[in-house]
Amino acid sequence: MDGINHLVLAGHDLDAMRTCYEELGFTLAPRGQHPFGTGNTIIQLHGNYLELLALTRPEDVVEHGVDSFSFSAFNRDYLARHEGFSMVVLGSQDAAANQLLWQSRGLPTYRPFEFSRMAELPDGTETCVGFVLAFTYSPAAPWLGHFVCQHFRPDYYEQPQYLAHENTALSVRDVWISGPGALDLAGHFATFTGIDGRRSADKVDFDTNSGRITLATGLAFQSAFGVPPPHPHDGPHLAGLTINCASLEPLRKRTLVEVGSRLVLPPERAFGLALAFTA
Asked: Tell me: the pLDDT tens digits for 31-63?
């Protein structure tokens, strides 16, 4: 697997999410619509991206199958519980090979899912963008979505006009998983990422080549973000993330909370996740 490819941030109102992230100084790509019921907006960064996601056409949601995982059904059911940070996605050069590797090492897997669509480029021409997804899960963390994504046109997600952000955002620095039992997922995430985690008393860190995944106790999470993990009733869950910026000065006028080296938008203002920035 490659490093962190993108993060799925799920909310009930895509327009409200777009407004919030625009006010934070992000440049947003146009809205998109999946044929399986979810609509999105991409925030492109260097080496990875954020996907703002909402359930926009419930009638088009594809249900889970015997050996297939449904991205849209998972996010529908997640949003029936609350808004938040629903999925972390690693990049892949061969998603089908990743699925076979996980299976050989004892992780539960599903049949890979392939999808493509036509997308418009800035010059008005169209190109085919698509991907192959391979999913796994942990029974100990049913609301922690994680999978790999093999892009057909990765360059589509790093277009110069969308990489320039008023808030000087550069890339995803870290992703935090917390809640009861989070540290117990160390073995599962070592297999999922292909990385040996660095363990301390209250954290396990997995350093990918494009961002860190951290399993953390509730106290460690609160020390970093100034708030407790937002959804402890979910068990181990994606609780927060940090964006690396060239400078924090453009963000200081946006009433964020300063916690150590981070400026934090708390979950009640960030659609159910702790959203932090650092330089």
From this structure: 989 999 999 999 999 999 999 999 999 999 999
Predicted local distance difference test score (pLDDT) of residue 115: 86
pLDDT value of residue 190? 98
Whole-angstrom distance, CA of residue 5 vs CA of residue 30: 19
Closest C-alpha among 120, 118, 122 to residue 161: 122
pLDDT at 94: 96
Specify the pairing of strand 203-208 against strand 198-199. Answer: antiparallel
Adjacency order of strands within the sheet including 38-44: 32-33, 38-44, 49-55, 4-10, 84-91, 145-151, 126-136, 113-120
Q: Can you list the residues of the chain whose pLDDT is less than 50?
A: none
Give the C-alpha separation, 209 to 86, whole Å. Answer: 22
Token pair 């997804």 is at which residue? 133
Residues near 84 by Cβ (< 8 Å), separated by ≥ 6?
A: 9, 10, 78, 230, 231, 237, 238, 267, 271, 272, 273
Cα of 180 vs its chain's centroid, Å: 20
**Smallest Cα–Cα separation from 46: which of 254, 247, 209, 271?**
209
pTM of the predicted model over 0.90 = yes
Find, among 36, 37, 46, the residue nearest to 3 by Cα: 46
Q: For residues 43 and 202, give the distance between their C-alpha atoms in angstroms, rounded to a whole number.
A: 31
